[in-house]
Amino acid sequence: MKKVLTITALVLLISLSLIAGTLAMYVVEIDDLAEGSVVAKEFILEEGVTNTFSDDVKIAPSETVEWKFSVKNYDGQTISETAMDLEFAIELTAADGKSAITPLKVTVFDENNNPVETTTEGATTYTFADEFELKDEGQEKTYTVAINWPSDDAVDINYAGADFGTALAVSVTGTQK
Description:
single chain; mainly beta; three-stranded antiparallel beta sheet; rod-shaped
């Protein structure tokens, strides 16, 4: 009986060893097979170098006043890494303590002196769109805002004097494409 028990134990031990060895051959673990990370792209929209706007510029019927401004998609060496849509808003309001000069007409020109859009007489908000394409170098876009007071002898006198003034504000929103 001792011999049968020993042989059974030995057969069991050999069987378990074979099974354990066979299963061990099919278990493989690979640590850190692949690694990576992501970082946010730069998204830059800033006031450009050009800004010729000033306060209390005098205008009379049949005259035009022009200002230039620009926006850019870079800051020193860092360039926006996404293409973006630009939405510009020009708002005309009465200057502080004054009544608005309502016959004024606003026209915005791009850097090639092509009109982007023109407001109708008396408009208070004007919008236009542009874009920065995705490029390796920084870009700057310059625009000219022309304020014209078309002469109309029948109503010009209604806006004469220091009690009338119109303030102009330009804002821009950049959206990633």
